[in-house]
Write a structure and sequence with these properties.
about 90 residues; about 65% helix; mainly alpha
Length: about 90
């Protein structure tokens, strides 16, 4: 796969952590940085996909109001514990 280079300004503490990780792995800093960025995007895209799906449900009226959730939580441990709101 073709690669390209970018210049990234890092906080010195982040740069030190990246260099230490590269040293521990006996790899160039650039390889470790590329892997870290790839992992971030893989995780970030999964997380954002689920957040966007949840927000879409809320916009479609599929959410539960805070009042109903609080009513349910307040019922915990009482004789009249309510089922989870849907």
């Amino acid at each position: 796969m073709p690669q390209t280079s970018i210049l990234v300004q890092l906080d010195p503490a982040v740069q030190d952590r990246l260099a230490a990780l590269a040293d521990d792995r006996c790899q160039p800093v650039s390889e470790v940085a590329a892997e870290v960025i790839s992992i971030f995007f893989a995780t970030d895209s999964w997380e954002h996909k689920h957040i966007r799906a949840g927000l879409a449900k809320l916009e479609d009226g599929e959410g539960v109001s805070n009042e109903r959730v609080m009513e349910w939580l307040d019922s915990w441990g009482t004789e009249n514990e309510l089922p989870a709101p849907k």
